[in-house]
Amino acid sequence: MASSSKEKVGETIYETKDDTYAFDRSPSTASHNAGESDGAVRFNAEGFPADAEQYAVWRRGIRKLDWRAVPPLTLLWWANFIDRSNIGNAKVAGLTADLKLDGNKFNIALAVFYITYIASEIPSNMMLRKLGAKFWLPFIVFCWGVITVFFGIVKNYAGLIVIRLLLGLFEGGLLPGMPLYLSQLYPRYMVQVRLAYFYAGASLSGAFGGLLASGLIHMQGLGVQNRYLAPLKPATQKGVAGWRWIFIIEGLLTIVISCFAWWCLPSSVKKFGGLKEDERELMLAVLGRDQQNNRAKAAGVSPVLTNDGEKQVNLPPVSAPNAVGPVNAHDASNAAVHQAMVFEEEQFEWREVRRGLVEPQAWFTGLAYLCICNALYSFSLFLPTILRGIYPNISLTRLQLLTVPPYIPATVLVIIIAYLADKTRMRGPFILALLPLSMIGYIMLLATNDAKVKYGATFLIALGLYPTAPCILSLPINNTSGLYKRGTVNALQLMIANLAGFVATFIYQAKWAPKYIQGHSVALGSLILAWLFIAVNVWWCWSENRAREQGRREGNWVEYQRLVDEAEWIYGPFRSSPDSRVKTDKCRPLTAFK
Questions:
Q1: 544-583: pLDDT as tens digits
Q2: Superfamily grouping for domain 57-268+354-542
Q3: Cα separation of 358 and 355, whole Å?
């Protein structure tokens, strides 16, 4: 990179041309001016390698990691969504009649799932940290795959309740675990796009689940000669009921997916065998740089600066244990690599869990996500039921197929919004823009009796709901420092959000068919509340950022430094200066240090 600054040997010069910077050379790297590479990693304003050759190597490593991590995680989330929502397909295929689920028994069976689902989220993240994501995530998926198979042979209401409780116990750990795992592999501003792949998979699973269910119900009657399956046939029919095959086949698919994920997922960047050493070193350096900046933000000492074309970037000088002042480029890049490695080795402390439990953004975004999930869960669980109310006379196969199209445009929009959110480093404005689409959809369901208009409304509902989830899930990853605090905040956010399961499972009851005015009204009101909670979170972030710009959070550094001194293993010997400032976007929310 061409320098426009006067050089001083042994002292750090920050170069600002083209929004990049470099640590200047010390006597040991004096050959750099002669055009020789000193091997150090220099970063641009976005925190990525500034050197074109290094950037190409780093991107090659990221692509390798993407191919090894993203496909199996997407399949795991696809299996999660299929196995959670297939009960809605089974309901219209005869489950309630065969198990004699009168009154609210079906809704109760849906709700009990969330008791163990919510209770397992924080403990599961602690187990993930202890045992590693490569083992833990496929393990819990394997367990619920086995349980889903047994779902297909349940004979009564009591068995249904037990199965739903066990499913919640194991499924609860996947969603909080995947963002935490990704935050160990990628810089913060590359996570939402990867999360979007999962949610795109969720959207497609809604579509594929309908297609699969429409095919599996035609297996009605198979298995009658099998002495294990013969008792499962309804009294008035020959063979095993078609809705049972939905659970049996999808459970077996889940088991296969979990085995594939265990084989494919990398343990960490450090241990990923598919990387060359130069790729590994650059990826660790970028991760370390990202984690250094994130801790400064968590301490409340890094204000948000406007991205208005200002070129100068003030960076946190990095000091070696016994050095006075900043160090050279080699030491700086080594410091970044060191930070990435100690991040992987962070030890458990209850203090970090307590800090996560009082994090304001966990509560703001958790309450917003709770309201969104009221609509999201009810939509995914009851879409076949809603469509039966719109089209009461169509065949069961056609009904299942009609559940497919609303998910297709939502899948595309999930990816587009994630790319834009990571590019602009903003989340809140996108959520505020998307939620009104779903609100309009529910208003259309309430305001008209035209079947085509109502069916079109389901497209708008899906378009507004699905792209918002990766935005909300990315906030703790972007703004929380420390692996255990981050895991706690992420799980707490989802624990709050998943309380929606107790509401969403009761807002579409049989007595309100076929218009379901009460259910649509509750979903609409929930989305209005979600919009308000996100607006409050944006305001809080703006207020906090303004306080940091004015220097009113500098006192947090004393407490932050005390934590560093008490937990040297977390941060290693390389410290960020208390007056460090980084360039980022003004709208992106930052957490206040507690």
A1: 878 877 777 666 655 555 655 555 433 333 233 333 333 3
A2: MFS general substrate transporter like domains (1.20.1250.20)
A3: 6
